[in-house]
Amino acid sequence: MRTTLIFATNNQHKVDEMRSVIGNEFNIITLREAGIDIDIPEPHDSLEKNASEKSSVIHQLTKQNCFSEDTGLEVIALNGEPGVMSARYAGKTKDFQKNIDKLLANLVGKDDRHAQFRTLISLILDNKEYLFEGICEGKIITDQKGNKGFGYDPVFIPNGSNKTFAEMTIEEKNVFSHRRKATEQLIQFLKENGTH
Ligand code: ITT
Known about the structure:
Elements: E1 4-7, H1 12-22, E2 27-30, H2 47-62, E3 66-75, H3 96-107, E4 114-125, E5 128-140, E6 156-158, H4 170-176, H5 178-192
Parallel strand pairs: 1-2, 1-3
Antiparallel strand pairs: 3-4, 4-5, 5-6
Helix pairs in contact: 1-5
Bound molecules: inosine 5'-triphosphate.
């Protein structure tokens, strides 16, 4: 039987990207599909701790194997911001456009536009937690391009490409993406630990 895991997220973009990497190897159930309506708090000062918080809240609630992920955009010239605040950079409403506007405004006049996306996956399997990390380096451009994807995708070009993530299909984004790299480690771990 295929391993089933609850994915502790309310972000459907993340689910679509991960499903495209995982394919049929594992069965992922979203919070919505599991009938869980909860806005999981992310109160901590690191991606690692927030990822752990999300998976442990859902694990306590369901007692089932599950995983979560927390992702941040870390901009070198902004000392790693927006980082752990990526979703709420311009306020509690999690408005993608306002977040981009704030990011671009804060980068005006800065020569160094290097940035990276960092994804932390927290897996709880048989009551034990495991963490996996994926990083994608690139740069922030001055004007947004493309309308696919989500979040900061229209202003981020990964190293090795001349397109923004928002100009790519999910499959193209997965060639470079932080989330794909972390997800592959998750898949590898699940296979090695006999849950396949
Ligand atoms: P969950 O906590 O429910 O999983 P969320 O959207 O709140 O969903 P995060 O706390 O991880 O997720 O927030 C990360 C924010 O960073 C997200 O809202 C986007 O603005 C941005 N982000 C994350 N991954 C991204 C990606 O692949 N491309 C562009 N922006 C991304």
